[in-house]
Batch of 2 targets.
Target 1
Amino acid sequence: MCYCGSETEAQVCCLPFIEGRKHPESAQQLMRSRYSAYCLKDTGYIHNTYAQSMRAENSEASIRAFAEQVTFIGLEIIQCSESTDYHFVEFKAMYLDGDVCVTMHERSRFLKEAGLWRYLDGELYPCPEKKISRNDPCPCQSGKKFKKCHG
């Protein structure tokens, strides 16, 4: 199954975008593929799918440092919407930073540049972080204890 939680095989879901064989046809497809790229630590794809105006302040090195520090474990799409100029995807992405489970709740803003969807920026909502003990259930919902799964 694909990392993005679509319940579709990755080879027909996000990988064709990440590998450059296809281009996302919607902001949601781009958002899902960027999440999957974080799971795969494909920082080139993440960097290249930023809007041109945002690439300089989001270096591939800083993206790589974050991607290598954390482990993404789940994605929930909450809502997709659009305005005249932008499309929006609200989501929650869960990741582990050591033994801390972090939920990143964001309303992302996307636009088209040269006919391709690009991530512009996002509004983050505060979420509490949760320290995970070795014997707690793993937050990835595998049914295993944290120490036997992602711990």
Target 2
Amino acid sequence: MDPSDPVQAAPRQLEDPRLPATVWVAGLGWLTPSRRTELLALLSSEERQRLRSWRQPGDRDRFLLGRGLLRQRLGEALGLEPARLRFCLGPQGKPALDERGNQGATQFNLAHSGALVLLALHPQRPVGVDVERQRPVPNWEAIARRHLPSGGCEALLALPPEEQPGGFLQQWCRLEAVLKATGHGLAAAGSPPPPGLELHDLHLPKGYAGSLALL
């Protein structure tokens, strides 16, 4: 998949039987003018306001594609019109479906980086997903020592030097996916793993790392 190609970037479900949740992947190249108009029509007034607040076109596109894809796939799963879905913030500030709309307990999480957007769905279990575009991270060792679980930095330093930056980004995706599943921020990075945690690395287009976490 090439996230910048209008055809290849179309939303598709990751075909991995190991995954306990549904994961959709889409690229910014799919956002033709007509699709922008289509997705914009699905957004709430609050979402449109947030869309306008982004200054960079890439940030606006990632937000539009993420929220539009979320509404389309949730509407499909729940048998509801995508534009009528209502969202709220949970106790930890994590976005959730507004239960007052009797929309069920479906759990979701969004992530984006570079030209890629991910959406994870599960009918009941809290889910978190993260994606990172592969890139140089000059200060990765200091970040790893500060935030990764015990032994994480040492495991990375044991890798060949050329594999260490990519290995760091994969571990960072795992950390972020867990924090997003729990709804906690980086302040909880050193906490013990939550009970029942499942963690899966994702097979994404070349140049991207990603992970999925379920509680």
